[in-house]
Amino acid sequence: MIRVLIADDHHIVRRGLIVFLKTQKDIEVVGEAKNGLEAIELVESLMPDVVLMDLVMPEMDGIQATKKIKEQWSDVEVLMLTSFSDKDHVLPAIEAGAAGYQLKDIEPDDLVTAIRKIMLGESIMHPVATTQLEESIREEENLPHIKNPLTPRERDVLAELTKGKSNREIASSLFVTEKTVKTHISNIFNKLQVQDRTQAALYAVKHNLTEGSGLQ
Q1: The pTM is what?
Q2: Which structural domain range is residue 41 located in?
Q3: Under a CB-based contact definition with an 8 Å cutoff, are residues 35 and 58 in contact?
Q4: Segment 27-43, tens digit of pLDDT
Q5: Do 101 and 186 belong together in one domain?
């Protein structure tokens, strides 16, 4: 079962999500929070697998809550579910550690798919959010050259990771074991000083590391 916590300050939104998610045999809604502070408290007590996080909430917003959750419980994944699609919200949410960013007009079946994919280690972005991220990257001026600290094989793994592939898919593509992929990903996170796959992918795009080394 995928244990889900819903954090949104609108009661009707929470109710709608709960009613639908309860129809899924592999998803269990374990709690609901009205703001970021409640979300943090419930994550500590309930330890969900995924938090569906609204952005704008009283007392503490979703970005602050996400950052604190990822700092303390790195295994808990956060999927932003919001009405805001501008880069001023998208980029901070990803930098805070959100594994995905979806808009509230998402189709119910697509939301379930996103939750399941996040549990497989994939990054799920709404097309509008992806566009905003790309625009933010293009707007960066005078980006300093950073010497690539990764080995050729780590670059290959990072390139596959940016395509949204799971560990199993990366292993199959590079003809290595899943255990080896996990080791490479751990090394990548440490070297790039990032917390998750989404931040690693964002780094790769910023620093032109998306093509891999070509190592076979």
Answers
A1: 0.64
A2: 2-137
A3: yes
A4: 999 999 999 999 999 99
A5: no
